[in-house]
Amino acid sequence: MHSKLGSFIRTHREHIKPQDIGLHVTGSRRTPGLRREELAQLCGVSPTWLTWLEQGRPVSASVKVLDKLADVMRLTPAERAYLFRLADRLDPREPATERAAIDANAIVGAIDVPAYMLDRQWDVVAWNKPAATLFTGWLDKRTKQVPQPNLLQFTFLSPGARTLITNWPERAQRLVAEFRADCGKATDEEPLAGMIEQLRQGSEEFDRLWNSQQVVGRDGGLRQFRHPKKGELRYEQVTFNVASSRGHKLVMLLPA
Question: What region holds the HTH cro/C1-type domain (predicted)?
Fold first, then answer.
């Protein structure tokens, strides 16, 4: 990943015309585009650090530096998004969750099985009526205190989750491992870091599972529930990443 990030930055640096970003150039140049020293100065980093980054050495690029690199190199929105993905960082200029939720409501509302959409923090940004019926005590009511319910907070902080979710210990363990795999390095950034700390303080089980450092993919599979009105229910869960909203996932529960 480091080599891909370095190659991407180097290629774009070499395609920048110094005069296009306000640099005065005199004489001929042996190499095309912007020099490393010039890009480093414009981004407020050392030439040595930038050299190491372009060479693919294991150096860490902060969100602030990536933001500056994208601006100086005049990356398009798609190029900027790719830069942050290569660095495994969250772009502070990503569209707000509220904007993504508008489309999410239309998507989940058109599905006739329990469906909901999660953002990067695993807040449920939209859900349909079948999901509200299934997740009683959670998605069947929205309050001012909890405008966007969170899957992890429900699982570990709501007593009703242990009754509703069949084989809660196994599901809870896998959920934490899936969340860690999904978030990667972003768990050290806000708002994820604050939410994780809140869960660790509020749930001994979450704290123990988080410290175990387990990582698994969100593969879906059989999900079983003990519904207070409908009894035992079985579903096959499938999850899709939403291409137009990075970090958003559509979850559907198909009758098994």
Answer: 8-80
Contact 161, 200 (CB under 8 A): no
| Residue 161: both structure tokens together | 């989750």
Residue matched to tokens 């296009």: 20
Residues 6+ apart with CB under 8 A from 207: 199, 200, 201
Structural domains in the chain?
A: 2-87 (1.10.260.40), 97-255 (3.30.450.180)
pTM over 0.70: no
Q: DSSP assignment, residue 239? A: E
197 membership: H or E segment, kind and range: helix 192-202
C-alpha–C-alpha distance, residues 182 and 176, integer Å: 10
For residue 38, give the 3-state DSSP assignment.
Answer: helix
Residue 60: exposure state from Cβ atoms within 10 A (0-12, 13-18, ≥19): exposed
Q: What is the pLDDT of residues 106-161, one digit of tens each?
A: 889 999 999 999 988 999 989 999 999 999 989 987 655 556 799 999 999 999 99
Q: How many CA atoms lie within 13 A of 87 on its CB side?
A: 25
On the 0-12 / 13-18 / 19+ scale of CB atoms within 10 A, 43 is: buried
pLDDT digits (tens, 9 = 90+) for 151-175: 999 999 999 999 999 999 999 999 9
State the residue for tokens 């035992």.
Answer: 232
The answer to whether the CB of 137 falls within 8 A of the CB of 153 is: no
Q: Token pair of 115, please?
A: 């469906």
